[in-house]
From TrEMBL:
InterPro entries: Cu2_ascorb_mOase-like_C, Cu2_ascorb_mOase_CS-2, Cu2_ascorb_mOase_N, Cu2_ascorb_mOase_N_sf, Cu2_monoox_C, DBH-like, DOH_DOMON, DOMON_domain. The chain crosses the membrane at residues 555-575. This is DBH-like monooxygenase protein 2 homolog. Residues 32-147 form the DOMON domain. It comes from Xyrichtys novacula (Pearly razorfish).
């Protein structure tokens, strides 16, 4: 009796069903076989995980720079014939992880019931072992794997990844008994080419009164070819429906206000409880453009598809209307904006000056940002969205130090950020072109680049995008540009650095576009300094002989990159 009481005090987390100390929960796989629950007292202390996997074999869980094995911080354990086993590992590649010299995780309990292995373990949020990840307030890639026996060996397809913001988690609802609107294509033929964008312009709803969309679920008929989907609202002058290839110069190319999005790696997106995307009512006649990017690298013939988005809605209106603001860089003059080849880190910047909003709208309220979808093409390695007030950086609305094209989804900010009238946003993208031999231009194609942040906020205002581009007619930039891209000699490092600096220093031409497709220009935008990303100081741990303030350094060392097709097409010709 006494010993049982003692056990329960030592292992409080293994007692009972739902545990108030582990309020957060995510399934890491689609089949709901892999579940992780977690909780923590304060962001400087310990974090406790409870891993539940439907297997009687070994289970593994960890953090990864980009969703893969290389560079991952992993724990593996289970209950075998000789008892409980559990260890801290790290992986250097797609091979058996190595045991970590410093064991930073403490097993609190392990159990196997009804074919499910349940392990509860704890670690400090901040790590001072350079083989472990520090958990920050940014989203982190969780990975899992498991076996069918207690012999730790190759997991085959029993693996996966999910990006979760552990410290700033946004709870998700479950889909039960809700009505939905369907934005789908109907058995379209996917051509035999690598990249194809299909657009369907349609009415979405016949809802006579205003409703709120509360959840967006992808309906992917063919996961092997569907790469991204965006649903845009159309300006009122677009009145004609169509169902054909995108960006052929149709008027509906002007439908540009993002309403909902899904990209490869993403799942169901649930909006926070108090907000919804408005639909129906006075916007009943509005047309919407569904854009689907098909990626058919083998050029398969005879493929058809009926994918789309399910938009779950409610008539019980929520407090606020949600809008999506597109910020970043868009090329909108005749000069090309190019990134030189063979550069390890090349930075580009787009600025959004919200003081222009009032010129377009008359008045603009404070905008509360709660989620962001960050986007580049294949050369993108890192994206940051700096938030400036009175010329000073006050935070980040998005910060992905290990951008992976294969895993894109709306990242909940966790704590809502307020953009005040006059605040500036800078979207910084870092590219690597070391494997390229020719220049990469900002544009639409597979090998072109983009740098965009889709910010989800409330209350919705009638602004669809706030983008910029360096003034490429600036004489210094023109000279440097022709020296680098038209010269016969290979440009020096210094030349490239100077070109990068000029792109940032020359006046930035900004364009703010309204929902009705009116554009306001501001020609003297400046890019402010964003500095280094915030890091939490590493606490001194007497057991740690590896204590060197490198707590978050491993987050910045992405090396693996899985190329795929391009994702997001963006056409200017139509709107400007
Ligand atoms: C934090 O976790 C470590 C390792 O599990 C443990 O030794 C320490 O007592 C914990 N601290 C608190 C405050 O729970
Ligand atoms: C596992 O849990 C079951 C039921 O909760 C319990 O009967 C059993 O003793 C536990 N086993 C271990 C090894 O903790
Ligand atoms: C996983 O195992 C638990 C416990 O046995 C069970 O309740 C649950 O239904 C299983 N889940 C799936 C998807 O099989
Ligand atoms: C889809 O289209 C293909 C050819 O385009 C046709 O063979 C097939 O029957 C269609 N499927 C449905 C369900 O309509
Ligand atoms: C936007 O443009 C339309 C014509 O396309 C015009 O009727 C409307 O007044 C403009 N709105 C603003 C806010 O300028
Ligand atoms: C934003 O616009 C205001 C004028 O409306 C200007 O004073 C300010 O310098 C601009 N900021 C940037 C970063 O361009």
């Amino acid at each position: 009796m006494l010993s049982l009481l003692f056990l329960m005090m030592v292992l409080p987390l293994s007692v009972g069903g739902s545990d108030p100390t582990l309020p957060f929960m995510e399934y890491l796989d689609q089949n709901h076989l892999v579940c992780v629950k977690w909780g923590f007292d304060n962001p400087q202390g310990n974090i406790t995980f409870k891993l539940l996997i439907n297997t009687t074999g070994w289970v593994g869980f960890g953090f990864s720079p980009n969703g893969g094995m290389a560079g991952a911080d992993i724990v593996m354990g289970g209950l075998g014939s000789s008892g409980i086993y559990f260890k801290d590992y790290y992986a250097t590649g797609d091979s058996m992880p190595l045991e970590d010299e410093q064991q930073s995780y403490t097993l609190l309990s392990a159990n196997e019931t009804d074919g499910q292995t349940i392990m509860t373990f704890q670690r400090t949020i901040q790590s001072c072992d350079d083989k472990d990840f520090s958990i920050t307030t940014q989203a982190i890639k969780l990975i899992y794997a498991y076996g069918t026996t207690d012999q730790i060996n190759y997991h085959a397809s029993r693996r996966g990844t999910k990006e979760v913001n552990l410290l700033n988690y946004m709870p998700r609802a479950t889909i039960t008994g809700l009505n939905y609107l369907s934005a789908r294509v109907n058995n379209i033929s996917v051509p035999e080419k690598h990249t194809y964008y299909h657009c369907k312009v349609m009415k979405l709803s016949t809802l006579k009164t205003k409703h709120h969309i509360t959840m967006v679920e992808p309906h992917i008929e063919h996961p092997d070819i569907v790469h991204h989907m965006l649903l845009y609202g159309c300006p009122s002058f677009v009145t004609q429906e169509y169902d054909t290839q995108c960006y052929k110069g149709d008027i509906s190319d002007a439908c540009f206000e993002v309403v909902a999005s899904w990209a490869v790696g993403g799942g169901v997106y649930v909006l926070p409880e108090t907000v919804g995307i408005p639909v129906g009512g006075e916007t009943n006649e509005r047309l919407y453009r569904l854009e689907i990017h098909y990626n058919n690298p083998n050029g398969d013939k005879g493929r058809t598809d009926s994918s789309g988005l399910k938009l779950y809605y409610t008539g019980k209106l929520r407090q606020e209307d949600v809008g999506t603001l597109t910020a970043g860089i868009l090329h909108f003059d005749q000069m090309e904006y190019k990134i030189p080849p063979k550069v390890d880190q090349f930075h580009t910047y787009g600025v959004c000056n919200t003081s222009i909003f009032s010129q377009t709208l008359g008045h603009s309220p404070d905008l509360h940002v709660f989620g962001v979808l960050l986007h580049t093409h294949l050369a993108g390695r890192k994206i940051r969205v700096g938030h400036f007030r009175n010329g000073k950086l006050i935070g980040f609305l998005g910060l992905v130090e290990n951008y992976n094209f294969e895993f894109q989804e709306v990242i909940p900010l966790g704590s809502v950020a307020t953009i005040k009238q006059g605040d500036e946003l800078v979207v910084e993208c870092t590219y690597s072109t070391t494997t390229r031999t020719t220049a990469t231009k900002m544009g639409l194609g597979t090998t072109d680049e983009m740098c965009l942040a889709f910010l989800l906020y409330y209350p919705a205002i009638k602004i669809s995008s706030c983008i910029s581009h360096p003034n490429s007619y600036h004489p210094l930039l023109q000279t440097m540009s022709s020296q680098i891209f038209e010269g016969t000699a290979t440009p020096s490092r210094d030349d490239i650095a100077e070109y990068e600096r000029l792109l940032k220093k020359v006046p930035q031409i900004q364009v703010v576009s309204s929902s009705e497709n009116n554009h306001t220009f501001y020609e003297n935008g400046i890019i402010r300094e964003m500095g280094n990303s915030p890091t939490v100081a590493c606490q001194t741990n007497p057991n740690n002989n590896n204590n060197n303030n490198s707590g978050s350094s491993r987050l910045g060392t992405s090396s693996i990159f899985i190329p795929a097709g391009i994702i997001l097409l963006f056409l200017l010709v139509g709107i400007l």
